[in-house]
Amino acid sequence: MKDFNKLFDEAFDKAWSKYEKKIQEKQRFNEMTPSEKLEWLKKKTKEVEEYFEKSWAVKELEKKEREKREKEEFEAWYRDYVRRMGNTF
């Protein structure tokens, strides 16, 4: 039971700290001047674009690897099939 309480406390503290960071970030944003807000938004937009570009690149790489693996598996199956069929005739 102590382990559960310890894990729960750690998880709660982690979640609470994320919540506090969001509140602090919102407060800092509200205190910014319009030009600072514009710069902050440009920075966030760039970060989001970079994140999606990276995730897109990773998905494309995974897709290519999956297609290559599936092609190799099919070719191996086909070679085995042809070999077995050759033995039956």
Order of helices and strands: HH
Largest sheet properties: none
pLDDT averaged over residues? 88
Oligomeric status of the shown chains? single chain
Indicate the overall shape.
Answer: elongated
Q: Would you tell me the structural class of the helices and strands?
A: mainly alpha
Q: Give the radius of gyration.
A: 27 Å
Number of strands: 0
Strand content: under 5%
The helix count comes to 2
- Percent helix range: over 70%
What separation lies between the terminal Cα atoms? 68 Å
Poorly predicted runs of 5 or more residues: none
Q: What's the arrangement of secondary structure elements?
A:
Elements: H1 2-31, H2 34-88
Would you kindly provide a written description of the structure presented here, covering whatever features stand out?
The protein is mostly helical and 89 residues long. 96% of the residues lie in helices and 0% in strands. It contains 2 helices and no strands. The protein has helices at 2-31, 34-88. The longest helix is centred in the last third of the chain and has 55 residues, at 34-88. The chain is elongated and about 80 Å long. The model has no long low-confidence stretch (mean pLDDT 88).
